[in-house]
C-alpha cells in the first residue's frame, strides 16, 4: 500500500544535481554539497559555529561538547537568535546507553507574573508589551541547560567550551552580508534601548558586512560563566545586572527567580511512522504531539499516487495540520500546570479525526477569533550534531522573535528574550505567530510558555537515521513533518529534503501558506478550487539536518540554503 523508497542508495546520484538546481532555484551562494563525515557532523545557522564544532570533533570532542560550544558561539555570532538570555529544548540520544532523553530549559514566567499582565483596565491587550522590553522576558534557561548537558555527557573542559565563545566576543568576529542585512532591517527596534544601541548601533549605524563586531560586556559575562558555571549567570554580578535592568525598565524578573530557575529532564514523545521510530519534544513544547498527530494522520495514505509538490498532497498535508493545530490551541500547555489529555496520539482518536478529511474540499476552521497572518520573524535557531559513538543532539533554542525583547542587559551584554508572548496573553487573541490559546496556556507564575520548537531524532532499525530541527515559530512543526515525509515517503535526498518548497496550515488563521514562487500556477489553482485561502510567503525557516547512513555510519549534514547556515564535520 505505502511506498517506501530506499533513500540510502539515492543520495550520491541525486546530490550534485540537486545542489545545482537548488542553488539556481533559491539564488543562494552558500548551499552545501553533500559531504560525509566519519567522526562527527554538525549543521548550524552560521559558518563560524559550524567550523568551531568541526574543529572540536578533530580535537576529540563528542557530540555533546560540540553542541555546547555551538550553542554558546551562536550567542555571540548569531545575536538575532543565538543566546544566553533565552531558553530552549534538547533532544538527545546517548550512544552508550542508547537512551533518548529531552532536556527542557525553556524560560519560565517570573513569580510576579499573572494572567492579565499584558491587559489594560478594559481587558484589552496592550500593544507590544509582551514582545518589547523587560516585561516581555521569561526567566532565561540557556546557560544552565547547556551546563546540564555538558555535565551529563561532555568530555572536554567546560571552561574551554565557553572560552571559545568568550574570546570570540572579546576579539570580535567579521559580520557577513546576511547578518548585516538583518541588523539593517531591525535598525529601528535596535535603537529602542540605549544599551542595545551601544552594542549593535555603534556610531548610530548598524554593522556592515566586513565590519568586526566586538562585544566586551558579553565576553565578560561569558568568562564568568566559563569559570563559575551557571552561578556566573544566575548569581552574583550578572544576576544583579539583570535585576538593575528589570528595575530600570519595569520588568519583574527578580534575583530569586534567577536563583530558583531549574531545568527538567523529560521523557520524549515517541511514536512510529512507517518502520521508523521518531522522538520529539514533549510539552511544554507542542512540537512532539503535533508532529506526531500530523505524521500519524498522514501515515495510512498511499502517497505513491502523488508527488511531493502535487496539490493533492499539499491539501492532504495541510488538512491534517489544520486538525492537529486545532488541538494545539485547546489542549496544550505546561504539563506541570495543566492536565494535558493523554489520548492525543491514540489511534482510535486519530482515526476519528482523519475521518473529517475531504480529499477535494478545504475544511472550515471555526473563525471565532480574528486571525492574523503569521508574521515573518525568523529568529529561533536550531543545530544538529552527532558523532561516531551514536550520540545524537538536536537543540532548538530561542529568544523568540528577532533580537528577542530588543533589550540588552546593561553591563552584561546579552539580549533578553520576549518569550512571554508565547503564552496566551488573552484567550483567543493570537500571538506573534498567529497562534491562539486559552486556559491550558494562560500565564501563571513559574509556568513555562507553550512552544512549537521540535528538535527531533529519527531511528531506523534501532540505529540513528536523522537529527533535525528548525526555527520558524508555528511553522517549525510543519517543516519538520514535511522533511520526514519528503525524505522517507518521497525518497528525496538530504539536500532535496532541506531545500524542498514548503507549505503550512495552522488551523487559524484559516490560510494555506505556500513558499513564494515555489509552486506551479496549476497547483495554486487546484488548491483554490478545493476552497483554500492561499497566501505566498518568502522563504522561511532554517532546517538543520543530519542523515546517518545505516550501513556504514557515515554522517551527512545539510544546512538550509535559505539562510546563512553551514554544515561540517570531521
Ligand atoms: O517557542 C516557540 O515556539 C517560539 N518562541 C519559537 C520562535 C521562533 O521560532 C521564531 N523564529 N522563527
Protein traits:
globular, 18 helices, 18 strands, alpha+beta, 570 residues, binds 6-diazenyl-5-OXO-L-norleucine, Serum Albumin, Chain A, Domain 1, single chain, 34% helix, 7-stranded antiparallel beta sheet, 6-stranded antiparallel beta sheet
Describe the structure.
- The chain contains 18 helices and 18 strands.
- By secondary structure, the chain is an alpha+beta fold.
- It has a domain at 269-274 and 288-378 and 474-538: Serum Albumin, Chain A, Domain 1 (Orthogonal Bundle).
- The strands form four sheets. It has a seven-stranded antiparallel sheet with strand order 6-3-2-10-9-1-18, covered by helices on one side. A six-stranded antiparallel sheet has the order 7-8-11-12-16-17.
- Strand 7 and strand 8 form a beta hairpin.
- The chain starts with 10 loop residues before the first helix and ends with a strand.
- Bound molecules: 6-diazenyl-5-OXO-L-norleucine.
- 6-diazenyl-5-OXO-L-norleucine (DON) is lined by residues 377-380, 398, 400, 419, 422, 451-453, 471-473, 476.
- 6-diazenyl-5-OXO-L-norleucine is lined by residues 377-380, 398, 400, 419, 422, 451-453, 471-473, 476.
Task: Set down the secondary structure blueprint.
Layout: H1 11-26, E1 40-44, H2 47-58, H3 63-77, E2 87-93, E3 100-105, H4 142-153, H5 158-171, E4 173-174, H6 177-185, H7 187-190, H8 194-200, E5 212-213, H9 216-228, H10 231-234, H11 236-248, H12 255-260, E6 264-266, E7 269-273, E8 276-280, H13 287-298, H14 311-331, H15 347-354, E9 380-387, E10 392-398, E11 456-460, E12 463-469, H16 475-488, H17 494-499, E13 503-504, E14 512-515, H18 521-529, E15 534-537, E16 544-548, E17 555-559, E18 566-569
Helix pairs in contact: 2-3, 3-4, 3-5, 5-9, 13-14, 13-15, 13-16, 14-18
The structure holds 6-diazenyl-5-OXO-L-norleucine.
